[in-house]
């Protein structure tokens, strides 16, 4: 199955401005008609544990930044946001705190999330428009978020100047973004593997029929790698190095060719910097428990799915989205352990944002997927 992702964004009708907009041929920005220039500016926001992405109506995904801020500890003044702040992770002096204001897809620090979001939204909207009319905003929420957590997200979005806020459940947005036929009376299955959580959903007729949510994501794999290296090599490595090891060596099944890479850290024995060599087999062992938990969640969701929908999924397969979908051979592992065909979405890191963006652009069509934010 081909997942027809961004194709649908090439030519689409903007229902509010009533004009056709067109994506530039080579992955560039959309050419926007007069209507979109006048009434555009509505946005869809995916506030992820690791990354924030913003889809601007009529333009596409216009911002992709790490969900990180740096703050001066004494004054609580915001110093840097996004990529500039992430560069300081593990490298900041004592008077500067590097903070990830979201945890497992929900707000851990309201003030900083609100300030970060305001900063990002101001970057994608032209100053004149933002001062005249606030945007309508679709914001993604984890499917297990509580009412209090959803309210906090909505208030953070309102703080950034939104005129109206809608929420969409992340697995539904992921499925829409992956081009699955969510509105049809047919089972579609999506596994969204984020940094702080993994969500599995079977969708039919625009709603989630069966779901699983586990508090395991890419950051847990990074932590497991750091713990393994500390235990086996007596070396402390930072989160950035652990993530790099995961991306370079991580795999859910043995790959054809085993590789090794060097990593630097601080020796627990001498206290000095030290470089060691780590193999792919070690990383596989380090993340084994977490990968198994993800596989079990997928299996469990399938087990609980009504037979007719399960049979649709046997035919068309499941789609993996989120950064974790890029873990080598995870698709093959899931295929072997469930017997269901598995596809990695074209653009896994942007699926949720694209889906929320499409819900925004086709508000009437996806109306049942969108809920007022309270
Ligand atoms: N090639 C790769 N292999 C394995 N993991 C990867 C790869 N590329 C990115 N990731 C991981 O994907 C995660 C980021 O994915 P994503 O942006 O979908 O998460 P998020 O939306 O911010 O988090 P969440 O949905 O849990 O709130 C990070 O943990 C990152 O390490
Ligand atoms: Mg996500």
TrEMBL record:
GO terms for biological process: cell morphogenesis; regulation of cell shape. It comes from the Bacteria. GO terms for cellular component: cytoplasm. It is found in: Cytoplasm. Pfam families: MreB_Mbl. Transmembrane segments: none annotated. The keyword Cytoplasm applies. InterPro entries: ATPase_NBD, MreB, MreB_MamK-like. Keywords: ATP-binding, Cell shape, Cytoplasm, Nucleotide-binding. ATP binds at residues 49-51, 243-246, 323-326. The keyword Nucleotide-binding applies. Coiled coil: none annotated. GO terms for molecular function: ATP binding. Belongs to the FtsA/MreB family. Forms membrane-associated dynamic filaments that are essential for cell shape determination. Acts by regulating cell wall synthesis and cell elongation, and thus cell shape. A feedback loop between cell geometry and MreB localization may maintain elongated cell shape by targeting cell wall growth to regions of negative cell wall curvature. NCBIfam families: mreB, PRK13927.1. Forms polymers. This is Cell shape-determining protein MreB.
């Amino acid at each position: 199955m081909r997942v027809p992702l961004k194709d649908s964004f090439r030519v689409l009708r903007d229902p509010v401005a009533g004009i056709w907009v067109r994506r530039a041929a080579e992955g560039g920005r959309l050419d926007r008609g007069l209507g979109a220039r006048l009434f555009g500016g509505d946005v869809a926001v995916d506030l992820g544990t690791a990354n924030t992405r913003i889809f601007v109506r009529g333009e596409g995904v216009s911002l992709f930044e790490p969900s990180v801020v740096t703050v001066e500890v004494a004054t609580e003044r915001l110093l840097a946001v996004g990529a500039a702040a992430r560069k300081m992770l593990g490298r900041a002096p004592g008077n500067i705190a590097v903070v990830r204001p979201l945890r497992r897809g929900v707000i851990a620090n309201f003030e900083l999330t609100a300030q970060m979001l305001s900063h990002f939204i101001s970057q994608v909207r032209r100053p004149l428009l933002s001062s005249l009319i606030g945007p309508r905003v679709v914001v993604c929420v984890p499917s297990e978020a509580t009412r209090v957590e959803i309210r906090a997200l909505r208030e953070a979005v309102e703080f950034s100047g939104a005129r109206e806020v809608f929420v969409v459940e992340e697995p539904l947005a992921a499925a829409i973004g992956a081009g699955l036929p969510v509105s049809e009376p047919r089972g579609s299955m999506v596994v969204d593997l984020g940094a702080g959580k993994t969500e599995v959903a079977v969708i039919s007729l625009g709603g989630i029929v069966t779901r699983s949510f586990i508090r395991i994501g890419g950051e847990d794999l990074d932590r497991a790698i750091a713990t393994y290296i500390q235990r086996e090599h007596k070396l402390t490595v930072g989160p950035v190095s652990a993530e790099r090891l995961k991306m370079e060596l991580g795999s859910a099944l043995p790959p054809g060719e085993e590789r090794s890479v060097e990593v630097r850290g601080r020796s627990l024995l001498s206290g000095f910097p030290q470089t060691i060599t780590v193999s792919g087999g070690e990383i596989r062992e380090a993340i084994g428990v977490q990968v198994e938990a993800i596989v079990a969640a997928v299996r469990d969701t399938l087990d609980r799915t009504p037979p007719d929908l399960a049979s649709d999924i046997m035919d068309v397969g499941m789609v993996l989205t989120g950064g974790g979908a890029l873990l080598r051979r995870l698709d093959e592992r899931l295929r072997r352990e469930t017997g269901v065909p598995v596809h990695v979405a074209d653009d896994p890191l942007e699926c949720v944002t694209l889906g929320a963006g499409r819900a925004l652009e086709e508000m009437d069509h996806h109306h049942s997927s969108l809920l007022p934010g309270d």
